[in-house]
Amino acid sequence: MAGVRAADRLAPSWFVVQVLGTVALVATVVTASSASTWLWLVYLASLACWALWLLSASWLPRTSLALLTVASLLPALAVGPSTDGTALIMVAVVLGRLAMLPSVSAVVIAAVMALDVLTAATSCLVFDRPPSLAFGAVVLCVFVTLLGMHPRHYQLQAAHSRQLLEQTRRAQREQARAAALDERTRIARELHDVLAHSLGALGVQLEVAEVLLTDKGDITGAVERVRRSRRLAAKGLAEARRAVAALRSDVMPLADAVTALAEDHRSDHGVDVEVKSEGEPRAISSAATVCLLGSVREALTNAAKHAPGAPVTITVRYRAADVQTEVRNARPERVGDTGATAEGYGLTGMRERLALVGGSLTTAPTEDGGWLVTAEVPG
């Protein structure tokens, strides 16, 4: 109620309505004719209640409502003895203003109107006035109440719209804040995955190279470690570029990116890599694309580690409800190798990242002794 009352007071028409109501009441009392002393006292008391309502409306809502009710009831008592319509006009002005207040419930307005109607009709009956006067008082009270509630309805709608707008803006701010936090988490995850793996492996290789040079004097072994470090640095740089591309949402289409990974693997390890595509290709989100590419990359790394020389088949499958990538490596050529029979931290991390976009990852041995890694995301 307080919010509606404040909004009503800030409306441009509020001051005008108060002034017009006050002018109408004062003019009606001043121009009253053939009024007895007690009628003048009733009129003045009603004016005093109106004035007190004006002064207390902003900080004493309950008291001000009582004052406005009394301001309408006092002239209603004088409808019977009044012969010039002054009392009826005062009732109409006060009751109409009461009906316009958005801070007063419709039930209270109806109750005050009924009380005014009952008081005016009783006054007409007591002072033996014609029934037409009582009927006219009833019609006038109902009419001004309905007339006053019409702008009240629009004021309530405007206040409600302002509240909805504020709630919408607050929700948008919260959504923007949540999106920013999600993006920060995504950036942190991408950078951690790239830097933690690449820099960690690079540090180990350089440390081994230092030991080979300082403690054992093995220049050949140290050079090999340095070369391996350089390859790790190049690989880490490529991973960082892919992560930045993902963060900028300019990742290449899934099929093209998988083909590029297959070509790199074929070039680096000298193995046969076949790429297949099933279904109608379609665009998916950059986050989902990055996760699928990460699972393919990890599966290729495991195939090179656990099944060196074994051919690899990559299948990109576009299904109705999801998109799936499948990396299958054949049985290792060397006896004793069994393929990626156990999950390392890489596949575990990929499973966690896929879960963040609603996807999943499964691994299983194949019938021919190879290994199968399957990732899928909604889309």
Please tell me about this protein's structure.
By secondary structure, the protein is α+β, with helices and mostly antiparallel strands. It has two domains: 2-171, no CATH class; 252-379, 2-Layer Sandwich (Heat Shock Protein 90), CATH 3.30.565.10. It contains eleven helices and five strands. It has helices at residues 2-10, 13-30, 37-56, 61-77, 86-100, 106-126, 131-216, 219-247, 254-269, 286-306, 345-356; strands at 273-278, 312-318, 322-329, 360-365, 371-378. The protein has a five-stranded mixed β-sheet with strand order 1-2-3-5-4. Strand 4 (360-365) and strand 5 form a beta hairpin. Helix 5 runs antiparallel to helix 6 (106-126) and helix 9 (254-269) runs parallel beside helix 10 (286-306). The longest helix has 86 residues, at 131-216. The radius of gyration is 42 Å and the shape is rod-shaped. The two termini are 48 Å apart.
